[in-house]
C-alpha cells in the first residue's frame, strides 16, 4: 500500500494509527499541505478534493476520505479489529468518530481557516476565536458522550478502536493550536493513555519521514 499524507494532518494521522494498530506496512509519500502540494496537478489526479490522506491499495485502487479508508482497512484486514462486532457498540464507536470527522474537523480545516483569513479578511484574533469556538463546542459534546457511554482506558474498553484513531489526532491538533482542554478530563485521560502505547507513537507526527520541527 501507499499512503499520501502529511505529518501534521489529523485525517492522515487517523489512518496511520489504524495501519500501525493492524501492523500493516506502507510506502509513505509526504504531501506538504502548508505549501499547497495538495493542489498540484499530480495530486488532484489522485484526489480532486485537494486533500490528504490518499491510500493506494495493494491492487492499485486509489481511495480518498479517511473514514472510507478506515472502513476499507477494517474490512480488508480484519485482524486486530478496530470496530466491535456488536451493532450498538459499533454505532457508539462510529458516533465518536463522526463527531470528530464530520462535525469538528471540517470547520477548522486548513482551507477554511485560509478562506477566513484571505477572502473574508478576518484578523488573526478572529481566526483563533473561530478555531477555539468549534473546538470547545466539539469537545464538550465528545466529553459528555464519552462520560455517558465510554468505559476503560481507551474510548471503549481496553482495546483501541477507530474512536481512539480519530480522538488522538484531534486532541493533538487542538493542543498545537493552544486550546485549553483542561476541563475535558475524560478526553485527556484517553489521549494520555493512547500516547503511552508504542503503536500510537509510531504513527505520531514527529515519527514521520516528512516531519518538520
Ligand atoms: N474529509 C476528508 C478531509 C481531508 C482533508 O481535507 N484533509 C486535510 C488535512 S487534515 C487537508 O488535506 N487539507 C488541505 C486543505 O485544506 O487545503 C478526510 O477525512 O479525508
UniProtKB/TrEMBL annotation:
Q: Which GO terms describe its cellular component?
A: cytoplasm
Q: Kindly indicate whether the keyword ATP-binding belongs to this entry.
A: no
The GST C-terminal domain extends over 86-211
Q: Matching InterPro entries, A to Z?
A: Glutathione-S-Trfase_C-like, Glutathione-S-Trfase_C_sf, Glutathione_S-Trfase, Glutathione_S-Trfase_N, GST_Zeta, GST_Zeta_C, GST_Zeta_N, Thioredoxin-like_sf
Q: Which residues form the GST N-terminal domain?
A: 1-81
Quick check: keyword Protease in the entry?
Answer: no
Q: Which GO terms describe its molecular function?
A: glutathione transferase activity; maleylacetoacetate isomerase activity
- Give the superkingdom in one word: Bacteria
- Please give the biological process terms from Gene Ontology that the record holds: glutathione metabolic process; L-phenylalanine catabolic process
Which top EC class is named for this enzyme in its record?
A: isomerase
Q: EC?
A: 5.2.1.2
In the record, the note on similarity to other proteins reads: Belongs to the GST superfamily. Zeta family.
Report what the protein is called.
Maleylacetoacetate isomerase
Annotated organism of origin? Marinomonas mediterranea (strain ATCC 700492 / JCM 21426 / NBRC 103028 / MMB-1)
Amino acid at each position: 500500500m501507499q499512503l499520501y499524507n502529511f505529518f501534521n494532518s489529523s485525517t492522515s494521522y487517523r489512518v496511520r494509527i489504524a495501519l500501525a494498530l493492524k501492523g500493516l506496512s506502507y510506502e509513505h509519500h509526504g504531501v506538504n499541505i502548508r505549501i499547497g502540494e495538495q493542489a498540484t496537478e499530480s495530486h488532484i489526479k489522485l484526489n480532486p478534493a485537494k486533500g490528504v490522506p490518499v491510500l493506494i491499495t495493494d491492487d492499485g485502487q486509489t481511495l480518498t476520505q479517511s473514514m472510507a479508508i478506515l472502513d476499507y482497512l477494517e474490512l480488508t484486514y480484519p485482524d486486530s479489529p478496530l470496530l466491535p462486532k456488536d451493532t450498538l457498540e459499533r454505532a457508539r464507536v462510529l458516533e465518536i468518530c463522526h463527531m470528530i470527522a464530520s462535525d469538528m474537523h471540517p470547520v477548522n480545516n486548513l482551507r477554511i481557516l485560509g478562506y477566513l483569513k484571505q477572502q473574508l479578511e478576518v484578523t488573526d484574533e478572529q481566526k483563533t476565536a473561530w478555531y477555539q469556538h468549534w473546538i470547545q463546542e466539539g469537545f464538550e459534546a465528545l466529553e459528555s458522550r464519552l462520560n455517558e457511554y465510554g468505559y476503560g482506558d481507551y474510548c471503549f474498553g481496553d482495546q483501541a478502536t477507530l474512536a481512539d484513531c480519530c480522538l488522538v489526532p484531534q486532541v493533538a491538533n487542538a493542543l498545537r493550536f493552544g486550546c485549553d482542554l483542561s476541563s475535558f478530563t475524560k478526553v485527556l485521560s484517553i489521549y494520555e493513555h493512547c500516547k503511552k502505547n508504542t503503536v500510537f507513537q509510531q504513527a505520531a507526527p514527529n515519527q514521520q519521514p516528512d516531519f518538520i520541527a
